[in-house]
């Protein structure tokens, strides 16, 4: 690994660690530079400003989730099992994130709502499109529903989930999953 990659990795690793431990407002670029063993100028050279660095780290966490969900979809598991594995993976990842990291995500979202809305929705749609193909091929999703219909449904569910405590979602996950499956088989 060359020096540039080592420095960038150190900066991202330190920032990720700090985002899990403290609020963004309590993290300074001086501290990141000191802990990453780079100059503050180096950080600004690679990441322009604190906000962009924070967004990049949060985005990397989301990218990690997307990569793993894509791997789950690519398995030989049937549609229902694939969906269950994705749901459980997402819940596990959310549980692994610290409360402070989640607060930092929400702060960044509040500061720039389009950061998550546009990017996350686009990524989510690409991932779910593969899942929908699998479901249609197995006859688990009615051909009467277009991808646009299904995306709207997923967006509505995702928006609603933002206001529900994680413990409640986990407690009712099996029932919610069955309700979701049953709603996809219109006319079959």
From TrEMBL:
Please provide an example of a Pfam family that matches this protein in its UniProt record: TetR_N
Under InterPro entries, the record lists: Homeodomain-like_sf, HTH-type_Tx_Regulator, HTH_TetR
Positions of the HTH tetR-type domain:
5-65
PROSITE patterns under this entry? HTH_TETR_2
Superkingdom of the source?
Bacteria
Identify the keywords attached in UniProt to this record, alphabetized.
DNA-binding
DNA-binding region(s) from the entry: 28-47
Tell me which PANTHER family the record gives: ACREF/ENVCD OPERON REPRESSOR-RELATED (PTHR43479), TRANSCRIPTIONAL REGULATOR, TETR FAMILY (PTHR43479:SF21)
Q: What is this protein called?
A: TetR/AcrR family transcriptional regulator
């Amino acid at each position: 690994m060359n020096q540039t990659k080592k420095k960038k990795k150190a900066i991202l690793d330190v920032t990720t660690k700090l985002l899990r431990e403290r609020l963004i407002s309590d993290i300074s670029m001086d501290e990141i530079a000191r802990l990453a063993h780079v100059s503050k100028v180096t950080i600004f050279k690679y990441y322009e400003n604190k906000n962009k660095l924070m967004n990049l780290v949060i985005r990397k966490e989301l990218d990690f989730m997307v990569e793993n969900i894509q791997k789950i979809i690519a398995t030989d598991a049937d549609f229902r099992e694939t969906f269950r594995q994705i749901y459980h993976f997402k819940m596990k990842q959310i549980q692994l994130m610290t409360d402070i990291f989640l607060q930092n995500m929400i702060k960044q979202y509040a500061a720039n709502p389009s950061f998550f809305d546009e990017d996350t929705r686009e990524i989510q749609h690409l991932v779910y499109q593969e899942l929908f193909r699998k479901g249609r091929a197995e006859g688990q999703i009615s051909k009467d529903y277009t991808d646009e219909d299904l995306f709207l449904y997923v967006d509505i569910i995702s928006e609603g989930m933002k206001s529900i405590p994680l413990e409640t979602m986990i407690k009712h996950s099996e029932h919610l999953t069955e309700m979701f499956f049953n709603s996809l088989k219109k006319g079959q």
